Amino acid sequence: MKIRLLIILALLNLNVFAVEGMWEPSQMGNLKKELKNTGYSGDADNLTDLFSFPLNAIVSLGGCSASFVSPEGLIATNYHCIEGSYLQFNSSEKENLFETGFVARRKSEEKPSAPGSSAYVTQSITNVTEAVLRQTENLKDDLDRYNKIESNKKSIIEQCETSDEIRCNVRSFFSGETYQLEKRLKIRDVRLVYAPPASIGEYGGEIDNWMFPRHTGDFALLRAYVAPDGSSKEFAKQNKPYKSKNYLKISAKGVQEGDFVMVAGYPGTTNRLLTYNEVEFDIEEGFKGFVNFLKSGIDIMRSSTKDEDGSSLKYRGLISGYENYYKKISGQIDGAESFKVQDKANSDWLGFIDYLNEKGSKQEKESLGSLLSLISDQKAEELPNYYYGNSRMISTAQRIYRYAYERTKPNDQREIGFQERDHENIVNGIKSLDYRLDKRVDKEIFINRLEKYKTFDGNLRRPQFSNYFQLDADFKKSKKIVEDIYSQKSLLDSAEDRLSLIDLSLDELNSIKDPFINIARILFDEQMEYENIAKSEASEKQRLKSTFIKSLRKYYKSIGKSLYSDANGTLRITFGNVKGVSLEDGITYGPFTRLEGINKKHSGEEPFDAPDKLMDLISQKNYGRYELESLGSVPVNFLCDLDITNGNSGSATLNAKGELVGLAFDGMLQTIIADYKYIPEARTISVDSRYFLWTLEKFDEARNILEELSLEY
Q: Where are the chain's structural domains?
């Protein structure tokens, strides 16, 4: 399930440091001085070319980052990035890969991924702002304007996707001030090659999450496959390993304190360019509301799932995701206070307002006033919207019903997400329920969320939805309605029947007597009404934010600063140095942790339950070729002052030669607020390449994998 994330804290950051910023490749040529100052000795122009080393070795997994590490399509990424679609998908009560780990000793043993799992290689990035906004200047109605922009996007994408192995997306930059077309190669057959047991890959669990010192072996290997003719096809025995044009060598020498490092990957979202009223709401209300939402979700899933019926395994990934964000947002609450974020945001905002009052046009000032008013209205609805829905059974029925409705239109008039190009994704989404959904647990989650949704003012709830579930009556009635619905037999209960519904016409779905399809039918008009409202608001916000960004850009220029775009899932580069940090009086964190720290933390119980073999190897000081002399051990994790966020998980951490020296996987809780205000003390945590190689050689004895990798000593 896709967790709905809160757009939380941000401010206008006016203090740019050399290591600040998640830079687009096209910007790297302008950063030669900064690169040189941090120790980069290569040609900065190579970092602008998507078809040159090292950028053409960088991969997106659609939510995580990764990189090719052999000419045979071998991909390195984080362990936590492959838990759901690879480990969970291939696990059962008889074979739990989380407990055992997995090593394919030959290619024929590699395991398939869940339907829809893919790897993406960026082919080009092109500015298409003019084409996206074409013929929108004179449209007064915001819904008409939204639809025109979407129509323009669909036309651009259709021209870009010249084959079914090319996937194109129009990405918004600077809140819709500019747009870029991202063209990617989609590799559909990606297989599991290697993952350590969870007692290595998740060592420390949620206790150590976002913390340092850290001792987590957050690494894994996949392999990309294509058809014998080189085309991108789904899993088939006759498929061959993908021949990547470039791949990363792995440094067995690793890095030392002070060394230059950079990360290339696909950071998801930062929010450093928001207005002050967004900051104010999120600090005073939004953070706390989201934390409560996550905590109640964790509690209901943990109390509802069971090992004996397999539901614990099905919800393992979702619980982990909720726990991850619960701890992160809790850390941001503390960070906002520690770094006085709201006070600084207010000060920065007042500086901008003073500039606008003196230099801004009447249109800029009026536009900003309208933007702030719109944002305030939207923020009031944010928390209730978290609790609306939350039933996979109902949402699946709604998606099936919507797909049938969209198929009554010509393809170019369908909503994005329901066109012919999206059929594969819809099918794979339905298939994923086989290993991610338990009807009993789904019911308990829905009842829990519905009871909270009931507590909001009626004007903040959807009236038809509220009426259907009788939310204005005693909640016992609402609960009984839900119990009755879930007790009935449904075509959504079995995998085969769910898939059969996808191909039915709207008339055929309307004739079906199914409890969940019936709900989708009854709520459809209201769903469309609210969607159109959201579209109108999105169009208005894009128009107003575009003006705001132009004003902000001029203000930045007036004080000698540059403006960079927030992260948005596109390829970015960040660079800096291996560096420890002091965050509290008298406490300094060195940049490296070592093997002996694993033994020291070991308790024999989760999450500090390292395998006996690993413990023995550490006790024997069997370091092999991977010892860092200054540390007197094998480095496990290390700190560097890189600017990353979610989505960067799995990103290759590279040295000045472009060799892989680690995989970025986390940040530090004390400075996690850096997603929203750049904090110079913020640190990226990477798993060290030497620990990765040491584990492959000493613990897993994976000689076939080590022989395939190109190692630099």
A: 379-560
